[in-house]
Write a structure and sequence with these properties.
The chain has about 100 residues and is α+β, with helices and mostly antiparallel strands. About 40% of the residues lie in helices and about 20% in strands.
Amino acid sequence: MNKQFFVYLLASRKYGALYIGVTSDLIGRTYLHREDVLPGQTSRYQIHNLVYFEEHGSAESAINREKQLKKWRRLWKLELIEKDNPEWLDLYPGLLGAH
């Protein structure tokens, strides 16, 4: 079984501050951001809502995509989120099986 890697975007609110990260444990990493366990941008600006993520088959692929997205214009990032999540819903509860 291959390990999966994720590129994810968190937001403080709709059209708010954004954070882009990469992880092999999307649920665990998002939890750490939500609970302000990790000092830095996400805790300082209350960036807790998981609004977008994509799965990758290798760490190299996920890291390359993360770097690509970090270079994108803000408008392109907003359009990426809104393509699959137009209401900017927090996707984290769905990862846990909650509705």
